[in-house]
């Protein structure tokens, strides 16, 4: 069992927890993920590491309440325990040797983008962060991004905070104005990452995307997290858990990945409703 | 007394009943049947059966105890050589091992050695009195990576010799393939849990949720004071065919489908893990894993077809599993090979929720040509014979390729062209004090071969640490 040492609501649908898991805290690097199970009957879900504190042996996770499991997790209180917590899994984001980068994050993906931005900042890179949210109420981690970025461009879909529009708008403006980066790293919903890749493509800048497919074991056993890369005209199957979760954005088949991500959409919606009803009764 | 030419039949659940439940298919011999079956053993001097057993159980000796109704005595004989008799009695391919060498088998059916082994193990689990005692500790620490059959065996043998053993398991439950791969109806998980509890009573630490190669590396295990490491990390990434449509929703690897059902218990309604249930399912492949996936899908309410590119004679699964599958109503489409998977696509509505789900599988008929290097006749496509099977789910049971996690994080650990860890006859890898066995070395094989490898490694580790 793994103790929830601290819990903080970042916005009405996004929660941050710090979990006591010293072996994971000791190893985890930006870009890697963990798998947890809330209870004995629970499913295994992957969550990207949002930071860790080696000194007190805790790992930070940030999750959006989207389904039954995240609902159950959110009902756990500080000081309570979760059943299983394993990691760090996947490969860390490659941060070395890059002097100027642009981080493009969307929604709760910003929680994962932040430790990557912080790592680049720590290594002395010039960091531009373009962070997008649906509206003002959903904005998270703004101060943290400002602390590690040379420039922050805040976007909201409805214009209620920062600039009005998608993250691709300022990205395109910067690139068209002649700005250049060693790399663009984008983390967020599949559709956003797909359009970030399309926006950057004409400018010949490498784009790294962080994929979050459905997983079970997370150690290269089940193959559920497979995705298709187009490498020099050849289709190649890769496994996000051991080959990723970061991939070359120009190679990823986003449409396929997004479709696969919705495989259990109906099941998950019903399960979430059932879980909410249980908590209402209690 | 004339010898009964036939093995005593295994009492089993009726196929019509068991097709709808996950309870164990075979019920096991009664005491009376076991004694009668034991009496068929000729107790021949040269005991050829023993040479057919990868862990060399003294077979005629344990059967002699059964003849005398001394079941505890029989158990003691088996446990000298095997640490998981309740498991092996169920999942070993006895027909191609011990029983294939049985003298009686020349004229009649061989002695039901596997069924007798299972009887003895189950009898002991129900009636055994002695509590496992933690042996005197010899002060040496050994780490075992993976809690599947090779790891559990290696850990058990070393613990009995007084070693302090820690087993590291990546998943949340110990047992490896015995838990995530083999279904409940063939190997009840309570039996695996009991074996693991037995090891703990011997002083073995079982640490779940630790991925060696990620949470800790092999080098860090040595830094922590372990003097030898056994790697039994099992098989790895599932193989796919590389045909069109394998990314459609509803295409599973057998590993994923079985893990959802066995490890995550998706067949029970109360758990959170989803699985596709019912409809029409096509399983591609002819091994034991294909049979397990097919029979699991059937129990989840599906109409199931197995597609295999060779004929029944080449089908690699155990005969008993194939017979069980046929009895339960699974259809075999032999000499057929998939060419592409078809999916739903509504061009009018990209948001149609059915988009991207499997609708069928296109196959081509095959015929058998000349034998290949292994002597198996090579299947050849019959041009123009393509046809389509409608289905909602496709399960690919084509084997696995080794997991890269340990190889990638252990300097100096040599692997072969297929990614399997290279070992010598003492299970020693290219790294000092690092031993390996099971599927991580051989690629997908059987439980008993993995156990044999774990046993061999335990012996070698003991010799190494006593030098």
Describe this protein's structure.
The complex is a heterodimer of chains A (282) and B (467). Chain A has nine helices and 16 strands. Chain A is of the alpha/beta class and 282 residues long. In chain A, the strands form three sheets. In chain A, strands 6-1-2-5-4-3-7 form a seven-stranded antiparallel β-sheet. Chain A has a seven-stranded mixed β-sheet with strand order 11-10-9-8-12-13-16, sandwiched between helices. In chain A, 50% of the residues are buried. With 467 residues, chain B is α/β, with parallel strands linked by helices. Chain B contains 17 helices and 16 strands. Chain B has helices spanning 15-18, 31-38, 48-51, 59-67, 71-81, 85-91, 113-127, 149-160, 177-180, 189-201, 218-223, 254-263, 288-299, 319-327, 405-409, 439-442, 447-465; strands spanning 141-145, 164-168, 205-207, 228-231, 237-238, 251-253, 280-284, 303-308, 331-334, 336-343, 358-371, 377-381, 387-390, 393-396, 400-401, 434-436. A five-stranded parallel β-sheet of chain B has the order 3-2-1-4-16. Chain B has a five-stranded parallel β-sheet with strand order 6-14-7-8-9. In chain B, helix 4 (59-67) runs antiparallel to helix 5, helix 5 (71-81) packs across helix 7 and helix 6 (85-91) packs antiparallel against helix 7. Chain B is globular. Chain B starts with 14 loop residues before the first helix and ends with a helix. The chains are: A alpha/beta (282), B alpha/beta (467). The A-B interface holds A 23-24, 27, 37, 41-44, 68-69, 83-89, 216-217, 219-224, 226-228, 237, 239, 242, 253, 256, 259-260, 262-268, 271 and B 170-172, 180, 208-211, 214-216, 234, 236-238, 240, 242, 246-247, 249-250, 252-253, 255-256, 259-260, 263-265, 270-274, 353, 355-356, 403-405.
């Amino acid at each position: 069992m793994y103790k929830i040492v601290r819990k903080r609501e970042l916005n009405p649908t996004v929660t941050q927890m710090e979990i006591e898991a010293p072996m994971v805290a000791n190893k985890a690097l930006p870009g890697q993920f963990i798998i947890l199970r809330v209870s004995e009957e629970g499913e295994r879900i992957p969550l990207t590491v949002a930071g860790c504190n080696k000194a007190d042996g805790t790992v930070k996770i940030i999750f959006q309440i989207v389904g039954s499991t995240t609902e159950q997790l959110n009902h756990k209180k500080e000081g309570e325990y979760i059943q299983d917590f394993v990691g760090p899994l996947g490969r860390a984001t490659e941060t070395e040797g890059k002097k100027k980068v642009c981080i493009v994050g969307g929604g709760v993906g910003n929680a994962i983008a932040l430790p990557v931005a912080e790592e680049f900042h720590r290594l002395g890179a010039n960091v531009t962060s373009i962070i997008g949210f649906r509206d003002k109420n959903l904005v998270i981690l703004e101060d943290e991004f400002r602390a590690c970025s040379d420039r922050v461009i805040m976007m909201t879909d409805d214009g209620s905070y920062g600039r009005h529009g998608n993250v691709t708008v300022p990205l395109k403006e910067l690139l068209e104005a002649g700005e250049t980066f060693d790399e663009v790293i984008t983390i967020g919903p599949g559709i956003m990452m797909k359009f970030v890749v399309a926006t950057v493509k004409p400018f010949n800048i490498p784009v790294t995307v962080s994929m979050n497919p459905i997983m079970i074991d997370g150690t290269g056993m089940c193959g559920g997290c497979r995705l298709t890369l187009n490498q020099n005209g050849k289709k190649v199957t890769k496994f996000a858990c051991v080959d990723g979760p970061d991939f070359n954005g120009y190679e990823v088949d986003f449409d396929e990945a997004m479709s696969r991500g919705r495989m259990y959409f109906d099941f998950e919606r019903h399960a979430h409703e059932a879980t909410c009803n249980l908590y209402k009764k209690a | 007394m004339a010898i009964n030419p036939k093995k005593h039949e295994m009492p089993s659940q009726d196929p019509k009943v068991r097709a709808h439940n996950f309870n164990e298919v075979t019920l096991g011999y009664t005491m009376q049947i076991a004694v009668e079956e034991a009496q068929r053993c000729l107790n021949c001097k040269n005991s050829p059966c023993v040479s057919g057993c990868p862990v060399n159980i003294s077979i005629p000796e344990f059967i002699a105890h059964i003849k005398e109704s001394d079941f505890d005595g029989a158990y003691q004989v088996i446990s000298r050589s095997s640490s998981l008799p309740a498991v092996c009695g169920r999942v070993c391919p006895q027909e191609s091992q011990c029983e294939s060498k049985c003298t009686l088998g020349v004229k009649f059916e061989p002695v039901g050695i596997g069924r007798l082994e299972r009887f003895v193990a189950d009898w002991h689990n129900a009636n055994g009195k002695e509590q496992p005692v933690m042996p005197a500790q010899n002060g040496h620490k050994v780490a075992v990576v993976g809690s599947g059959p090779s790891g559990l065996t290696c850990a058990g043998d070393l613990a009995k010799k007084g070693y302090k053993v820690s087993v590291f398991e990546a998943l949340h439950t110990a047992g490896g393939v015995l838990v995530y791969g083999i279904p409940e109806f063939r190997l009840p998980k309570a039996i695996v849990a009991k074996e693991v509890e037995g090891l703990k009573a011997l002083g073995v630490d079982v640490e779940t949720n630790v991925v060696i190669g990620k949470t800790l590396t092999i080098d860090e295990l040595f830094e922590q004071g372990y003097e030898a490491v056994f790697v039994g990390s099992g098989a790895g990434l599932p193989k796919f065919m590389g045909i069109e449509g394998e990314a459609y929703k509803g295409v599973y690897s057998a590993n994923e489908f079985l893990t959802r059902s066995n490890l995550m218990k998706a067949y029970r309604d109360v758990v959170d893990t989803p699985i596709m249930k019912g409809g029409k399912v096509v399983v591609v492949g002819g091994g034991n894993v294909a049979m397990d996936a097919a029979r699991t899908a059937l129990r989840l309410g599906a109409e199931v077809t197995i597609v295999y590119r060779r004929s029944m004679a080449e089908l690699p699964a155990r005969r008993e599993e194939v017979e069980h599958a046929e009895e339960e109503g699974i259809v075999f489409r032999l000499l057929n090979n998939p060419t592409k998977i078809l999916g739903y696509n509504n061009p009018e509505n990209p948001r149609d929720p059915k988009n991207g789900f499997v609708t069928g599988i296109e196959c081509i008929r095959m015929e058998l040509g000349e034998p290949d290097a292994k002597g198996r006749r090579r299947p050849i496509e019959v041009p123009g014979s393509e046809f389509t099977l409608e289905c909602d789910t496709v399960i690919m049971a084509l084997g696995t390729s080794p997991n890269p996690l340990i190889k990638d994080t252990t300097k100096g650990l040599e692997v072969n062209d297929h990614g399997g860890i290279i070992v010598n006859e003492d299970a020693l890898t290219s790294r000092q004090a690092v031993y390996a066995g099971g599927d991580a070395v051989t690629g997908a094989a059987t439980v008993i071969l993995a156990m044999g490898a774990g046993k061999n490694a335990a012996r070698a580790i003991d010799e190494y640490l006593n030098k």
